[in-house]
């Protein structure tokens, strides 16, 4: 392995670590616009990693995977999520079910667990970037922690998309990418899922004033739906002689 390949492998490990840091950024953020920004940045890092692996291994189909990721995850899906947030007038997502210090502690424990699980698997793999498997698995677990620690549907969908980024990074690092048919199918499924989410939330906003997944509508929303109470007419008293 020449010096250029060694530098490329080190750059892949560095970018994978940046992807994990962005996953922690998603975990601690409360603003929905910041969540979308972090997701787009994580997807951009994934594009660079995929291109580097394709250059080092000579797998030309990885360039197509990187281009598809760039179009869908860096451009199209964030634009759709931005429009959804602005349409619903959601800026801050105060939907964390676990306090921030406890969330970070759980995230660190999941990272340690992921590296411990991935170490024997990475040793059996012959891929050039198999060392990033632990980072990819840690990103998946951190995304899962974000999903179960949030109550709003939009935050949970962004967490699911971050988990899908971790799966894609693991497949790229260990197996040099999934078959193109599988990648296209997953990309279409993710895009359709985001579109269905938008339609679902629009109807949910019309039905209730609360967008929390499974949460009851607020008393204000129930009052607005029921309308103001109309006073009952009083019966005239008849005086007996």
What amount of the residues lies in strands? under 5%
Q: Structural class, from secondary structure content?
A: mainly alpha
Main pleated sheet:
none
The first-to-last residue Cα distance is 115 Å
Number of strands: 0
Question: Helices, strands, pairings?
Answer:
Elements: H1 3-28, H2 32-57, H3 61-88, H4 100-124, H5 133-148, H6 153-175, H7 180-207, H8 219-226
Task: Tell me about this structure.
Helix 1 packs parallel to helix 5. About 5% of the residues have low confidence. With 241 residues, the protein is mainly α. It has one domain. Helices cover 75% and strands 0% of the residues. The longest helix has 28 residues.
Q: Which properties best describe this structure?
A:
241 residues; mainly alpha; 8 helices; 75% helix; 0% strand
Can you summarize this structure?
Helices cover 75% and strands 0% of the residues. The protein has 241 residues and is an all-alpha fold.
